[in-house]
Amino acid sequence: MNSYRLGIIGCGNMGEAILGGTLNSGFLKSDEIIFYDKDNYRKNYIKKKYKIYLSEGIAEVIKKSSYILLAVKPQDIKTVLDEIKSCFDFKTNSIISIVAGVPTDYIEKRINSNVSVIRVMPNAPALFEKGMAAISKGRFVRNRDLQFSEKLIKSIGDYVVIEEKYQNIATALNGSGPAYFFLFCKYLIESGIQNGLDPEISKKLVTGTMIGAGIAMEKSRIDLSGLIKKIASPGGTTEKALREFERNGLDKVVYSAVKVAMKRAYELQDFLDPGKCNESLY
Predict the structure, then answer these.
(1) Structural domain count, the chain
(2) What is the CATH number of the domain that holds 218?
(3) pTM higher than 0.90 for the full model?
(4) What is the dihedral of CA 64, 65, 71, 74, to 10 degrees?
(5) Could you give the strand order of the β-sheet that contains 53-54, starting from the edge strand earlier in sequence?
(6) In this structure, is residue 258 part of a structural domain?
(7) Rounded alpha-carbon distances, angstroms, from residue 275 to 73, 171, 266, 267, 278
(8) Whole-angstrom Cα distance, residue 71 to residue 11?
(9) pLDDT digits over 172-214, tens only?
């Protein structure tokens, strides 16, 4: 039996978000987690802040963990998988990968075994237990592995299960999505400040509005067009603002931004496995 339930390889911003959210929610305790990061600053920072066991290397994480969370940068994945391959036990180990643009079959082939791989695209609000993730199964995933992954992700927010071919569009939506909202809110806050509002008051107004709008989207049975219509009274301020958005092509800007984000996810995938991606997809 392995000493730790979860082993984390790579503890950057997203790895830390999942770690922090998992501990905050109580799904796992600090003594059930082992981690490794090649960066000395991150090693010391994570160990001190979260009181979890710092491994001497990747091999120890694999040998002592049941579930391995891969949270490294895409450009590091080849080296990491080659090191994992030498000590991976497909009977006892399972991989949960949050590495952008890396398909499950690439990990399977690189490790060269019937490895259970679950691909997850989470997002940064996981740190506050408000994350949204997209989960896809590899070819050799066992029921117990999927159940653990779903509980892990559920402890830091919510998730949907999708076919892996849709992971790159999910990356462009939920993975990058929080930054889109932050940017839009930044402009709204700056508009308030430019028109005389105190910065903190402007921020509070916009933040509360964004949170409330999100809850309305989640809870209301009315579709988005209906919700917009309820607010945009004919001849009113909201209708005037919405027409200005339309006049300046906000829809085209959003569609284009999502498309280039998705294309970048395919480019990362193609970097690992040249020629495999179908360019017609982007």
Answers:
(1) 2
(2) 1.10.3730.10
(3) no
(4) 70
(5) 53-54, 33-36, 4-9, 65-70, 94-97, 116-121, 131-137, 157-161
(6) no
(7) 21, 21, 11, 10, 8
(8) 6
(9) 999 999 999 999 999 999 999 999 999 999 999 999 999 999 9
